[in-house]
Amino acid sequence: MSVNYYLNLFLSICSIISGLCDSSDPRSEQGYPTGLMSVCPGSTKPARIPRSQLKYLLFVVQGLGQSRKKYTYWAARSIAKDPRINFQRKTLLLALGYLDSTNFPISSMLANEYEARDYNVIMVDYQRFATVHYYLASRLMRPVGKHIAEVLTQLTELGLNASKIELLGFSLGGQTVSYIAKNFQRFTGRNISKITALEPSGPCFRTLAPNDRLDASNADFVEVIHTNIDGYGMAARMGHVDIFVNGGEYQPSELLLYPCTSTCSHFRVLALWVSALKNPGKFIAIKCDSIQQARDAKCYERLPTETNLMGLKTNRSNHGIFYLSTSKGYPYYLGPNGLNSEYASWKQISYVNDNDDDEIYT
């Protein structure tokens, strides 16, 4: 069966689980940047990974028709000689989320799409360090990022062009890529070309300064996609282009009886990004003046209307906050209809009835 079938099945299960585990109305509050687990005491304390444990930091190279080979932290020279690697192409380094592994479907789904677009694909498997208590995992991503940057630095010394390196991170990986990029800057004096952060983690990162989390200064261009900013994501501008999908809080459910709450909305970004890769130019976002304006889908009132695209065709010179409206089901894009407020999934999260102060959900 197709990848799209399994993707939709996975998201449907997420929607059911999310609905069963979260009894609250998903739109009972507008939400503000405090969100879930705003402060994690000690999460910024220095952490170190003993060299004996670096054998668990793995690099998986994919190419030649989705074949893979796994390398250790010490094998940069072997990676450079891998027949799947061509230094003339762009190189994507993929950083995964909390508890994730390159053996799970998420990495394959993303890697396959980039390989099909003629990228070198290197997936980093740091499951050993991400399968611990979340507080510790968020702290360990700092040294993990540093050691990944060491390998990238060695690869550039062996011929990899830094201007062709892109980082893609999902969830906790969306913050990990910032540590990779920061350390790469420190080691080489050069910037990563592009960072794409899909729903970068908010828990343990919400109140941190830019030097301790993802920030636009981390690469020549940083694109951030937000789908659950008050739950597992983060309500802050972190890139040159920040796209808040359907306001960024919760996504419309594909299942009638189950709302797409935090888990479903957080993972929805994966299906959105795969669809954006497959359908370039179809996800048209509209510019906003603030995150709150994006939350309330009021960016349609902003004049003159400015737009940008989600995906590989994003206009890198048009920086800012953007609102993207989608449909409920795959492939999600609305095309030019998304620029019409009548097609907004949620025009407003909630409003107060003027007559009796009862809260009405739209």
Automatic annotation (TrEMBL):
Pfam families: Lipase. Residues 75-331 form the Lipase domain. Belongs to the AB hydrolase superfamily. Lipase family. One of its GO terms (molecular function) is serine hydrolase activity. It is found in: Secreted. It comes from Diatraea saccharalis (sugarcane borer). Its main location: secreted. This is Lipase domain-containing protein. One of its GO terms (biological process) is lipid catabolic process. Keywords: Secreted, Signal. GO terms for cellular component: extracellular space. It comes from the Eukaryota.
